[in-house]
Amino acid sequence: MSAEATNPAVSPAPAPPTANRRKGRPRIDLRRLGRAALLGPATRDRLPDAIGHVAEAHRAHHPDADLEPLRRAYVLAESSHRGQMRKSGEPYITHPLAVTLILAELGAETTTLTASLLHDTVEDTDVTLDQVREEFGEEVRYLVDGVTKLEKVDYGAAAEPETFRKMLVATGNDVRVMSIKLADRLHNMRTLGVMRPEKQERIAKVTRDVLIPLAERLGVQALKTELEDLVFAILHPEEYVHTRELIVDNAAQDNDPLAEISEEVRGVLREAGIQAEVLIRPRHFVSLHRVSRKRGQLRGSDFGRLLVLVGEDADCYAVLGELHTCLTPVVSEFKDFIAVPKFNLYQSLHTAVARGDGQVAEVLIRTHQMHKVAEAGVVALGNPYAPPSEERSDEDAERTGGAGAAGEGERIDPTRPGWLSRLLDWQEAAPDADMFWSTLREDLAQDREITVFRPDGGTLGLPEGSSCVDAAYAQYGEDAHACIGARVNGRLATLSTVLKDGDTVQLLMGQDPASEPSREWLEHAHTPGARIAIQRWLATHPSPAADEPETRDDRHPDEAPALRPALDEPTATSGGANAVVVVGRPEANVRLAGCCTPVPPDEVTGFAVRGGVVTVHRVECAAVQRMKNLGRAEIGVGWGDTTEFRVTLVAESFQRPHLLADLTEAIALEGVAIVSATVEPPTQQRVRHTYTLQLPDAAHLQSLMRAMRNVPGVYDVGRAQHQATAAH
Hints:
The protein has about 725 residues and is an alpha+beta fold. It folds into 5 domains: about 30-235, Orthogonal Bundle (Hypothetical protein af1432); about 255-380, Beta Polymerase, domain 2 (2-Layer Sandwich), CATH 3.30.460; about 450-540, Beta-grasp domain (Ubiquitin-like (UB roll)); about 560-570 and about 645-720, Alpha-Beta Plaits, CATH 3.30.70.260; about 575-640, no CATH class. Helices cover about 40% and strands about 15% of the residues. It is built from 27 helices and 21 strands. Helix 12 (about 195-215) runs antiparallel to helix 13 (about 220-235). The protein is elongated.
């Protein structure tokens, strides 16, 4: 299908040979449709002339299709729209006919085509949804209702965004709704030249911001590329004309590097005994414009790509091997979308080969079935809601790249992809049409998705640039308010960490029902679902006034730069002279080093310092090696009979409310006295707590550390290791 020129000022040039048109099938002229429509319905024993071309296209994909529903749908649509004219001057019935032809060419099944013929009847005629149900069944009624606009008289300025909201919700239950809408918009864009320039621009912008991204996400590249070119012609006419001139000038050249390289590729594959079809696919206008901006001066091979079609998946890799062996590959251009399909069902191998003269040809390698899905996306699924059969299950496995069972990721169910589920989730929380409309455009502008893995084997599909915050809300919804941290690829990470395609993310959830999100999470939230959930919570939980007295010790770390409970400040010496015996000097004055606070059964050593005091360190303490390097002599020490010991522990945690109170309680329950405690200001959502503790028994140390680690939010507890100082 190629763009139909309706506005001489910006009308597209003759479409490149690859413009998604079925070989040998001329486009049906609107005037021919109009003449056929004016002849009226045919007798019951044959199809009306006006839908003969639709039937032909439909039977090409579905040879055994029952055409009777199409005949009846056309009769109802033609009689209902009779007398209505388009702004182009054509009978109105030409529009649903053209929309249905677009879908038939893509391979849509009979139910979709039936609904397409009727898609404007409820909106623009006296036909009711009940009548559609009675004559064509519930499925057709649902599809027609899904694409029917809401009345401006009822919704005012919110009619357009609320219509899209309604349509997206309907698409969540049946993706065929959006297939009809995309074909409807394509035909309207083809005939947009009869509209006022300002209306053309408004419609083109909505198409650019909403419909084209939806076509991309549903994998309907045939519609997406033509819509892009039509929008390009309206919104960027000068760049469009320049690109058109480049195409015309290149077509006038005597030699075609792509044709020469394609012949070379055919020869390589023929010698290897690989049956393959090698085609040249000229780039569409927007694609060529992007390449021109990226590369500057264009070469002949930049105006298109080679498409190699084979029978089986294994043949794709065989073709790749031959091309990389017999030609010069550009390794940096290789991508395997067969082993790892895109989120919109797309599968293909991408590579590039170079000639000695510098011409580089990009090559796409795929099976015929992959090509069908690449062009038509979800439309190529036929009726994805039909009861499964053994034959159909095999076809589905081929279409979806042999993906596994449900629950293993968003590529598994193309009828409800992950991006659509996320969109439907957050749209429910959007408080008004304006927020929905602006957020929808933002969401759809994120045109690349990544897949991250969960430890349980599941996956999350997220927009590129998403953080652990986004992953938390994608997995848990508003329960993500209780998220306290994450591990990315097995390593502890802050919630602000930006995820990359293929990362494994384990989200750490707190058990406190009063857990709350931090305001700074908004800075790291990339997805609408995360932002809206956080904003809703913050709106219903305003923070206390700045001048309100704070009396609790369990304040949120964001509310104070440092927290100190009403305890003694830490002392420079952690006493316990009776805890250690100096070999040969039982009456020596002993001090336990504050840098490592040794306790039994730690292996210890001592050094003499000023005043005849012996400072005792754990042997692995960094200060020990420093002392040795300074030439200090070690003094033999050992543990005495004392039963009380002091130790300094450091707890590393993710910030959350009430954490200090919970840690203090856990320590008290172990029968341990807190000598002093400090809490450092939070850094990247992490908080460091330092406690000097009086243990009743050295044996309590391990159980104490376990109890502290079990406090939600705490991910590590260890013995203090301070920097050694020259004072020693």
